TrEMBL record:
Gene3D superfamilies: SGNH hydrolase (3.40.50.1110). InterPro entries: DUF4886 (IPR032616), SGNH_hydro_sf (IPR036514). This is DUF4886 domain-containing protein. It comes from the Bacteria. GO terms for molecular function: hydrolase activity, acting on ester bonds. Pfam families: DUF4886. Residues 37-279 form the DUF4886 domain.
Length: 315
């Protein structure tokens, strides 16, 4: 080959290599800028799950969450459906935008929230007094899912059911006697009712916050996840729920995520992340989180490397 041809060939190879590298970097950058849009049609329990920590967990992994919460305290599926029918402006529409800023719009309608973004996910949930009773879900859940499908701006939207948690064992909630004041009974009732309801309504996905909280209660932390017997603590409880949502929505393990509330100890962070991770893996059963587990006392290199340095250095 002539020298000129050789130079041209080498130039072409270098150009192609640069092009491929730029292409790979573009893909990596696109992944790092992933945006996930999720809307909760809920109440104070959806506020507990998405209004703290979820955005920050995403940011730590290069994922931008845009989060909407159509909020009415204690709102049941029945009331949500009535509001939809009447186009009633009863909601606080709480939205966390792409920069993490919260904006609250009062006197909003369900339609306002549904059409505000091209949502990737829309979630439903029952209010806590009724969450373990299947007959309270219908026909309202069917009607709400049809309403969302009709009015969404994203034909590919995924409908999800949010599995909520049982009350603390010593809760004084007025409706706890409906579950014989038995936390385990309430948890099992929620699992059974929400799973059957989702299947009946054609909802393929469930976010298992309830199982994550119950997993956490099985650990050394104990029953310390609620601030008043039913709403989650702003750090420990909400971080557990948000970790569960993060792992479900992104498909990425939350174990080793470097974000955590400053009020939690490294050991609490590791425990909560594991509780959420195990819940996503096994959403309908409790996994006991024990410090004596081999993965804790003698972590494998892969397991150890999952954790940020600041956690690994504080066993």
């Amino acid at each position: 080959m002539k020298k000129g041809g050789s130079r041209n060939y080498n130039y072409m190879k270098k150009s192609l290599l640069i092009f491929l590298i730029l292409g790979i970097l573009t893909v990596i950058d696109a992944r790092s800028q992933d945006t996930i849009r999720v809307l909760a049609i809920g109440n104070s329990f959806s506020a507990d799950a998405v209004e703290n920590h979820l955005y920050e967990l995403g940011r730590q992994e290069g994922v931008t969450f845009i989060i909407g919460n159509l909020y009415i305290g204690g709102c049941s599926l029945q009331r949500h459906w009535q509001n939809a029918q009447d186009d009633k402006p009863d909601y606080e529409y709480r939205k966390i935008n792409a920069t993490g800023k919260l904006r609250v719009t009062k006197q909003a309608t369900l339609m306002k929230g549904i059409t505000d973004e091209r949502w990737d996910y829309v979630t439903f949930q029952q209010n806590s007094p009724n969450s373990g009773f299947l007959d309270t879900y219908f026909p309202y859940l069917d009607q709400l899912t049809a309403y969302v499908r009709e009015h969404t701006t994203n034909p590919g939207v995924k409908l999800v059911f949010h599995q909520t948690w049982a009350y603390a064992w010593d809760s004084d909630h007025a409706d706890f006697p409906r579950y014989n004041r038995d936390q385990k009974l309430m948890y099992r009732s929620i699992i059974k009712a929400s799973t059957k309801a989702a299947a009946k309504a054609g909802i393929r996905y469930i976010i298992p916050s309830g199982t994550a909280i119950q997993n956490g209660r099985s650990s050394f932390i104990g029953d310390r996840f609620c601030r008043d017997g039913y709403h989650l603590k702003l750090d420990l409880g909400r971080y557990t729920a948000a970790s569960t949502w993060f792992e479900f929505l992104t498909g990425r393990t939350v174990i080793g995520n470097g974000y955590a509330p400053a009020t939690l100890t490294p050991l609490e962070v590791i425990t909560v992340q594991r509780a959420a991770h195990e819940a996503v893996a096994r959403p309908f059963e409790v996994t006991t989180i024990r410090l004596s587990d081999r993965r804790w006392s003698s972590p494998s290199p892969t397991f150890a490397e999952d954790f940020p340095t600041w956690l690994r250095s504080n066993p």
